[in-house]
């Protein structure tokens, strides 16, 4: 993959990449033993990006920023950018490719996140499909500013993972990565939210065709209306100033 096209969209920056591009990037960085962050933006993260300095600092250090949002892709197309649904990148869409590559390449993968009670089921689900995968797990429920964090960092330095998946939800996972980045071993770091809750079967997984049709958010909302109402129906209104700036930028002569 050559250097991807980076867009300024809704007040932030994103890269025009496909899931295959992400896998290629991870593979190259692991082979080079380089530390890198593969971040992602959706409407929720854009809302947090505007309101939190630590989120802006996190994205400033990201090496690759996925578009994890069909509405963002639709807005980018409206702004005249050459993007399509093929450029949506999210764990549920590339997980089989990721784990197949991890098994084939012998990557050491470490996941920080999830509840202790669910992590065994998550690991079992992944190993049932990819039995040779090397996977270590650590709960995401710990004091990120206390002794438990120091022990986790020591364990990571000992394990020396090739890929570190951090699934503690936004913005906790991004804050943890930002605060501990310089103490992590050289590895590729991906914030993955509730990825392992899906693997464990404790969170509803929408059919993948809903993402292709742009209605995955609606399906999620019907399953978790209390948790997602504000995220889907209140937070996007805060992005109106950024949308207006995009419109003004598009109308300026080249």
Coarse structural class: alpha/beta
Helix content: 40-55%
Give the C-alpha Rg.
18 Å
Count of strand segments: 8
Mean pLDDT: 92
- The N- and C-terminal alpha carbons lie at a distance of 28 Å
Beta-strand fraction estimate? 15-25%
Low-pLDDT residue spans: none
**If helices are DSSP runs of H or I spanning 4 or more residues, what is the number of helices?**
13
Summarize the structure.
By secondary structure, the protein is of the alpha/beta class.
Which key features would you list for this structure?
single chain; 254 residues; alpha/beta; two-stranded antiparallel sheet
Task: Describe the 3D structure.
- The structure is a single chain.
- By secondary structure, the protein is an alpha/beta fold.
- The protein has helices spanning 19-32, 43-51, 53-60, 70-78, 91-105, 116-129, 147-159, 172-180, 195-200, 208-213, 216-223, 225-233, 240-251, and strands at residues 5-9, 12-16, 36-41, 64-67, 108-113, 134-138, 163-167, 188-191.
- It has 13 helices and 8 strands.
- Strands 4-3-8-7-5-6 form a 6-stranded parallel sheet, with helices on both faces.
- α8 links the parallel β7 (163-167) and β8 (188-191).
- α2 (43-51) packs across α3 (53-60), α3 packs across α8 and α11 (216-223) crosses α12 (225-233).
- The protein is globular, with a radius of gyration of 18 Å.
């Amino acid at each position: 993959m050559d250097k991807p096209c980076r867009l300024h969209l809704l007040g932030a920056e994103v890269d025009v990449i496909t899931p295959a591009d992400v896998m290629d990037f991870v593979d190259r960085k692991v082979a080079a033993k380089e530390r890198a962050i593969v971040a992602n933006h959706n409407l929720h993260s854009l809302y947090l990006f505007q309101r939190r300095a630590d989120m802006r600092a996190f994205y400033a250090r990201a090496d690759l920023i996925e578009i994890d949002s069909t509405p963002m892709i639709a807005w980018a197309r409206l702004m005249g950018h050459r993007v399509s649904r093929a450029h949506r990148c999210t764990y549920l869409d590339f997980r089989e490719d990721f784990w197949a590559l991890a098994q084939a390449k012998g990557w050491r993968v470490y996941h920080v996140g999830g509840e202790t009670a669910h992590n065994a089921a998550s690991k079992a689900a992944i190993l049932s499909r990819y039995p040779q995968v090397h996977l270590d797990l650590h709960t995401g429920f710990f004091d990120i500013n206390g002794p438990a964090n120091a022990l986790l960092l020591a364990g990571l330095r000992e394990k020396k993972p090739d890929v570190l998946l951090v699934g503690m939800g936004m913005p906790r996972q991004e804050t943890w990565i930002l605060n501990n980045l310089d103490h992590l071993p050289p590895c590729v770091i991906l914030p993955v939210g509730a990825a392992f809750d899906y693997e464990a079967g404790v969170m509803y997984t929408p059919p993948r065709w809903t993402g292709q049709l742009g209605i995955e958010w609606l399906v999620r909302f019907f399953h978790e209306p209390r948790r997602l109402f504000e995220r889907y129906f209140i937070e996007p209104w805060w992005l109106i100033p950024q949308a207006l700036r995009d419109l003004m930028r598009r109308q300026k002569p080249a």
